[in-house]
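Contributing new complexes? Match this layout with oxaloacetate ion.
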Amino acid sequence: MAVGFRIFTNPDGIDAEIIEAFRKLPGSNVADCMGRMSGMHSEIRRVSKDGCKMAGSAVTVKVRPGDNLMLHKALDMAREGDVIVVSNGGDRSHSLMGEIMVRHAEFRKLGGIVLDGPVRDIDTIRTLEIPIYATGTTPAGPYKEGPGEINVNITCGGVSLNPGDLVIGDDDGVVVVPREDLEEVLASALDFNRKDQGKVVESTAGRLNRAWVDKSLAEKGCEYIDLKTGKRLTGEQDG
Ligand SMILES: O=C([O-])CC(=O)C(=O)O
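Output block (do not edit by hand):
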């Protein structure tokens, strides 16, 4: 077997109803319901038009750093609504796609693309509604030699994911939900979101209970020192 140069086909899909329910939720609420550890790091930014919500089943691609042969293949293999997620070995020196590939992804009605690397042709990409996430831009183009793999476990933006996991994205960034946890995370994220909206109302009106901050500092033994006198104080202090 050509380990390192393989394409696995036919990953399980995700129920359309589950995908649509997640699409309506803020990614931050979903990530908070998974120990706050499943959000991709801040280098993975939306580079296409703001405001479009992404949700779809992952097609995972591991490319040789700076090479997009396997990404070209994944663009042809992915099903309507799928989200292609690419691991690029940390390379930032070569773009992994440009307008021609993005237009092809749009034509094939893919759900979005997440790249652990840069894009080019940003003038056009920033105007398009298909969700594209990347680490930045460079005019330097990709090589097309391989090797690489499709539909294997990868890490992108600091998060490990498998083919068929759910990938969601909004203007904050990208979150991965493992397929075996979908129903549990959806139930808790719906509940979390209801409570979060209540907190926003309270916070806007200046009624949010902040007592937990001083309680937590006291429990952790935080000290207060008067800047003018150098005197150490105990207990809760303002200013
Ligand atoms: O060279 C490539 O494969 C990527 C590219 O520029 C494009 O998609 O426009």
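Reviewers usually confirm one structural detail per submission. For this one: Residues 5-194 form a domain with the Glucose Oxidase; domain 1 fold (CATH 3.50.30.40).
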